[in-house]
Request: fold
Amino acid sequence: MQQSDTNENKEMGLLERQVEAMLFVSPQPISSQEIASYLGLSTGRVETAVKTLKEVYERSHGLTIIFASGGWQMATSPDLAETIEAFSNTVSLQKVRLSKAALETLSVIAYNQPVTRSEIEEIRSVRCDRVVETLLKHGLVRVAGRKKSVGSPLLFRTTDRFLEIFGLAGINSLPTIEELKDYKPDENTTGLYEGPDNLENGGDDDD
Reply:
C-alpha cells in the first residue's frame, strides 16, 4: 500500500497537477493543443500527462478524465453514477424552499398554463404578486408572452427546472385532479419544498 502511494505521488508531477487544475476549473472540454499552447509545451507531453492523470484517477479516485467534444474533461466515475444522481436530486430539492402559498400558486400555473397573474389570483382568491416573483426567481416558472386581451397581461408557464425537481417527464405526467383527491401526502414529504413563511410568504395575502 505504501509503495502504491509512493508511485502515485511520483507520477503526479507539476505538469500533471497543472493539467488537473485546468480541467477542474474549465466549464467545457479542453483540447491537448489548447493546453499545450497555454503551457508552452508540445502536444505529446500534454497527452502523456493526461494519460498519467487518467491512470492515477482510475486507481483510487471518484473522478475520471474523459474525452468529449474534441477535448479532455473531468467527470465523475461511471461506477458512481447511481450515487451521484441520487445526491444531485437531493441537492436540487434542497435549493428550492417554498411556502405553502408558493406551492399552491405553482400548482395553479402548472394545471392552467399559460395563465395570467389575475387568473391565478381569481382561482386562489388572494393576491400573488410576490409569490409569483419567488417562483420566477427559483426558475420554476417563466414568462411565456402576453395574452391578447385588454392590457396585454403577461402569461406564465412552468419550466424544465420544475419538471426536473418534481421528477416529471413532461407536463402530461402531472397527476390528474381525480388522482390528487385520492392522494394522502406523507407528513415528511412537504418539508422538502416548504420553507419558513417569513421567507417566501411575505407578499401573499393568505394571512
